[in-house]
Amino acid sequence: MSGVLVVMETVSNGSALHRMSLEALAAGRKLAAGLSATCDAAVLGSSPASLAATVAGRGVNTWAVEHAQLAHYTADGWSAALQQLIDQAKPQYIVFAHTYQARDYAAKLATRFSEVLIGDVTALRVDSGTPVFTRQWMQGKLNADYRHPAGTCFVSVQAGSFPPDADSSASAAEVKNFMPALEAAAIRTTPSEPFREAAQTVDLSSAPVIVSVGRGIGEQENLKLVEDLAAALGAELAASRPICDAGWLPMERQVGSSGQTVAPKLYLAVGVSGAIQHLVGMKGASTVIAINKDPDAPIFEVADIGVVGDLFEIVPALTQAILAQKAS
Question: What is the pLDDT of residues 59-94, one digit of tens each?
C-alpha cells in the first residue's frame, strides 16, 4: 500500500471541476513529493472521461470512475465506488477538498476501512517519513498535529490552505478507466436539484484582490472610502465580523472562522485589528497590506507591509494615487 489518491469534485452535473479540487490536488502532490510516492486523481460521474483528461493534462494519472448511478451525487454511490477503487488501486492516503459534499460522505467512506477522517487540514509536512497533518482548534487559537501510523489515511484540506499549482504545462498523464459494481437498490437517497446559492452571493474565496474593512472605519457612512478604494483596485470588498454583525455589509462578505476563507494575491486590511478569528480566514493571502492607527494591532504580525496612520487620510490619498496611475 503506497501512494496518494486525490478525489476531484465536480460541479454543474459533472461538467466542470470544483475550484477547491485543484487545491486538494496541490496538497496531494505536496504529500506525495514528501513521501517520494505517486499521486493519482479520481473523477467520478456517468461520463467522466473529459474531465479526467483535463486533470491528466496537469501531469497526474487519473482514474475515470464511470457508472450510470454516478450521474448525480449521492453519499451511497460515491462511498461504494471509491471503496472499490481504493481496494483495487491501494493508495495509502486519500485527499479531498473540505467541501460540503466531502463532509457528507468522506467520513462514511473512512469508516468502511475502520478509519477516521482527518478533516479541515490547513498544513502538512513529512517528518522522518511520517506525514504530519495540522488542524486548527478553538477557532484558530491552537494548532494540533495529527499523525496516522498505519492503514489507509483519509484527509480533507481547508479552502485557501494549498494554492493550486500555477504551472499546469506538465506532459499529459494517463487516464485509467474504472467501472465500479453499483446496484440501484444500494442507492438509498434520491438526488434533488443541486443547491444553488442566492444570485447576490459573493465568492470571496476566488477573488485575486480583496480590500477588507474593520471597526476602524468608525461609522457606516465612512464605508464609501473603502468602497472607492476597492473599485479603484478592481477588488472585492470584504469585512471583519463586527462590520457584518452591525449590518453595514452583508454576511456573505465576512472573512474569518465564521465567514469565508480566502487566499487572494493581495489582501488589503483597512482598520482591521486582526483578531484571531479574522486571521484564520485570510491566512492564505500571498501578500497582506495593513492600514491601522494602532501600532500594536495584531494584524501587523502577519502583514507584509504595515502602514501606521489615520485611514481617513491614507485611504483617500491611496485611491487617488491608484486612479492617477491608471489614467497616466
Answer: 999 999 999 999 999 999 999 999 999 999 999 999
Distance between CA atoms of residues 315 and 18, nearest Å: 36
Give the DSSP letter of residue 158: -
Q: Which one of 3.40.50.1220, 1.50.10.10, 3.40.50.1360, 3.40.50.970 gives the CATH number of domain 204-327?
A: 3.40.50.1220
| Domain residue extents for the chain | 4-186, 204-327
Is the CATH number of domain 4-186 3.40.50.620? yes
Backbone φ and ψ for 66, nearest 5 degrees, come out as: -120, 130
Contact 11, 17 (CB under 8 A): yes
Query: How far lies 169's CA from each of 18, 58, 60, 148, in Å?
Result: 20, 7, 11, 33
Kindly tell me if the per-residue pLDDT of 36 is higher than 60: yes
Cα 239 from Cα 202, distance rounded (Å) = 12
**CA dist., res. 139 & res. 148, Å (int):** 23
Amino acid at 186: A
For residue 137, give every residue at least 6 positions away whose Cβ sits within 8 Å of its Cβ, in sequence order, or none.
143, 144
Burial 160-192 (b: 16+ CB within 10 A, else e): bbbebbeeeeeeebebbebebebeeeebeeeee
DSSP-assigned beta bridge partners for residue 305: 289
pLDDT at 192 over 80: no
Q: CA dist 200 to 82, 197, 232, 250, Å?
A: 35, 8, 21, 10
Q: What separation in angstroms does the CA of 145 have from each of 93, 151, 244, 278?
A: 16, 18, 32, 22
Q: pTM of the full predicted structure?
A: 0.76
Question: Which residues are CB-contacts of 158 (< 8 A; sequence separation ≥ 6)?
Answer: 98, 120, 121, 122, 261
